[in-house]
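tokens incoming
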């Protein structure tokens, strides 16, 4: 090719998203929810011309290829209409090419190619993916005699750089919710009996340490190699909606919910470790690339790293369905165009390039607001560190947004991890969420092994790691009830401002740890635009917003008292 190839990937179903791979190393990725302000917003017709094209400049370049993925819903029945939308919206460099790929394969391409590994075992586990009729990969034992309506719920691969990955096993399910199967289905049912809405699995994970994992005496899940089945005893308990309705406004008790979460998390982790052990036996691989919605379970991920036979594990920051658009784009670049990809997921700031004037314009729009003060400190990191030390909650909006569901420093809310009331204040007065939800720590990478039981960088907040006992009392805002924390190590090469802020805070206080949680209000997704972040500042009880080069404060705001209670 005379110029760099451009491949567009589009996830058309849950957690709708778009991605662009330009050349060997440039990648953009954006979720629909960031634009519509509706969490987990499903992809639909109209997204490409009305949402993605206006926001992402890379889509206005000539395109060589478009790769779409669908899942188990009915949207793929409209594939011809979707393809026409692509033809009407994008400019192709030559003859238009549009390819469709199956769901788990798109997850796999979001995990292994961007990993640091030359070879790895690949594992994709989620609730349900594509039906057999829509598979775009071959798997032993699945052929024309296999019922076409069966759905993939887990897939397992041998991966080696320079070769297409080989899928050697899948668990299939007939979609009958009277006989659910697989780890993703199990955790979905566990979540839905206690909480409403999509994406509440993290609530179950956060609630589990408050319960007794043996309270109901329920059996382990049945594991047969790569297949996981759910015993009838579990299905009977998960059908008792009244007993576990505490968070749904019903008569259920907190204790029962916490106990069920604990027992469910135990069963999930035990089965996942058995499947992981089977995968290692089958492949003999040193490394594991893991994707799918279940890969967002930090507690289980920490156990895989500590207890499995794999030496290292890579989990993409967008392990959920929102990351499949990126997998589509990389698949198209590598397998359809035959171009190598040098993109490695070293940070997650893959959102659109910010408009140079956007921050200044947003700040000008609130310059006359008497409830805000706009400043330009000579040393922004030091000014923010001083506010944090005094007990203020400070948000950060900078650069390209994170592609995944977790804020990693470009759309973050920051607080003092030493403050005994900070977790409750952020949960109640800023995030508007349940009191038991943990907050994650940022930590300077060189200080992490001293404070946490970790021996490697963990930049994506994906692993629950033990806080060393001697540091737990000093860091109450980030130490969960079970003594763990979902840490993010910070290095200057990946997150320079965050590193400067932590360094300034450490130099001021002696503590190299801060709270980091996503910049959003109650029920909202991560902010995307400067206007979104300013609205979050004014609509919550946050105290300040760093938006380089500006610091926006609420004059007269009172810092969080150390004895604050809800």
């Amino acid at each position: 090719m005379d110029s760099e190839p451009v491949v567009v990937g589009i996830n058309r179903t849950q957690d709708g998203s778009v991605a662009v791979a330009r050349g060997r190393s440039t990648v953009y990725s954006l979720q629909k929810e960031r634009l519509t302000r509706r969490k987990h917003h499903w992809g639909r017709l109209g997204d490409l011309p009305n949402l993605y094209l206006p926001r992402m400049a890379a889509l206005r370049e000539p395109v060589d290829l478009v790769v779409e993925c669908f899942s188990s819903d009915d949207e793929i029945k409209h594939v011809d209409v979707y393809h026409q939308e692509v033809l009407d919206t994008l400019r192709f460099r030559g003859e238009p090419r549009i390819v469709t790929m199956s769901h788990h394969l798109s997850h796999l391409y979001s995990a292994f190619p961007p990993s640091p590994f030359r070879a790895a075992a690949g594992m994709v586990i989620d609730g349900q993916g594509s039906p057999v009729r829509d598979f775009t990969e071959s798997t032993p034992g699945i052929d024309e005699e296999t019922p076409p309506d069966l759905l993939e719920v887990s897939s397992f691969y041998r991966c080696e750089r320079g070769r297409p990955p080989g899928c050697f096993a899948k668990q299939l399910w007939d979609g009958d919710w009277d006989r659910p199967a697989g780890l993703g289905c199990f955790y979905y049912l566990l979540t839905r009996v206690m909480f409403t809405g999509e994406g509440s699995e993290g609530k179950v994970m956060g609630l589990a340490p408050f319960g007794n994992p043996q309270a109901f005496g329920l059996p382990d899940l049945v594991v047969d190699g790569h297949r996981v089945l759910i015993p009838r005893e579990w299905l009977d308990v998960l059908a008792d909606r009244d007993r576990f309705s505490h968070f749904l406004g019903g008569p259920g008790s907190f204790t029962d919910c916490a106990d069920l979460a604990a027992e469910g998390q135990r069963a999930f982790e035990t089965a996942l470790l058995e499947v992981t052990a089977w995968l290692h036996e089958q492949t003999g691989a040193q490394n594991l690339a893991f994707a799918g919605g279940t890969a967002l379970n930090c507690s289980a991920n920490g156990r895989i790293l500590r207890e499995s036979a794999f030496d290292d594990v890579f989990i993409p920051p967008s392990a959920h369905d929102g990351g499949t658009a990126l997998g589509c784009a990389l698949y198209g670049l590598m397998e359809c165009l035959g171009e190598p990809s040098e993109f490695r997921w070293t940070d997650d700031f893959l959102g659109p390039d910010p408009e140079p004037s956007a921050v200044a314009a947003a700040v000008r729009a609130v310059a006359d607001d008497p409830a805000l003060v706009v400043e330009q400190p000579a040393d922004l990191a030091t000014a923010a560190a001083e506010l944090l030390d005094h007990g203020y909650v400070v948000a950060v909006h900078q650069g390209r947004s994170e592609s995944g569901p977790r804020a990693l420093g470009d759309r973050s809310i920051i607080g003092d991890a030493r403050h005994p009331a900070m977790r409750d204040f952020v949960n109640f007065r800023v995030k508007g969420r349940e009191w038991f939800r943990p907050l994650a720590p940022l930590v300077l990478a060189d200080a992490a092994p001293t404070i946490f039981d970790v021996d490697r960088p963990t930049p994506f907040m994906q692993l629950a790691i033990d806080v060393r006992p001697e540091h737990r009392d000093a860091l109450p805002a980030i130490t969960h009830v079970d003594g763990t924390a979902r840490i993010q190590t910070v290095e200057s090469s990946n997150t320079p401002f965050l590193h400067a802020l932590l360094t300034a805070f450490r130099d001021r206080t002696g503590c190299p740890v801060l709270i980091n949680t996503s910049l959003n209000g109650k029920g909202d997704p991560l902010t995307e635009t400067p206007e979104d972040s300013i609205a979050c500042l004014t609509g919550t009880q946050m105290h300040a917003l760093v938006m380089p080069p500006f610091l926006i404060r609420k004059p007269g705001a009172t810092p969080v008292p150390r004895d604050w209670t809800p």
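note: The chain has three domains: 6-105+322-336, 115-315, 358-553.
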